[in-house]
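Annex B. Sample input.
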Amino acid sequence: MNPCSVPTAVPDVDGDKRWQSIHRRFISDCREKDPDVIFLGDCIFETLQDTDTWNQLFAPLHCLNFSIRDDCTEHVLWRIENGALDNVNPKIVVLHVGTNNVSNSAAQVAEGLLANVAKIREKLPGAYILLPSLLPRGQQPNSLRDKNAEINELVKEQTKGLDRVQTVAIDKGLVQGDGSISHHDMFDYKNLTNTGAKKILEPLHDLLSQILNENELERDLTPSE
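Annex B, continued. Sample output.
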């Protein structure tokens, strides 16, 4: 059985139950707030919440960010199965997870991502699901960067034709001409600085705004009962 597709809670190895506490806070947010957009994922989007670009572009869109730093595909899947998307009806779910599945093959990670997509669809039949590409990582070209690129291609191919599921490339401008990544864009060559965040968030914001505006138009054109 593919471990990337088996819902799994993060073990409490530190003994402080932080991961479960964060998960319960997200469930509470679902009961108390009415978001148009929910971000689900790992460290990439967790750190984005503290950037200037996030505050400028995404706070006005009524977003909730349910991302946890070290999550893998199986951990997000567990969270979805255990209440992370209950009592809420967002127009869009943005899913970004897989870069932390370092010990799994590209095919396994892609399958885990698709298991998350299926579970989101089960929970939220009417939501639009956006899948931003996994970002390159490491200062210089390396096998994990290659694997993330392979995962992106697999997911793009395997989601073709799925209703209201769309992949979007967000890595433009991160890799320089010599193949390196600058610490000005990724401070640890994995997570984004304010400068790097602006590069990936602006095109994502444009797409989210387009989808939200189209939803508004569809609602306006729907005859009342």
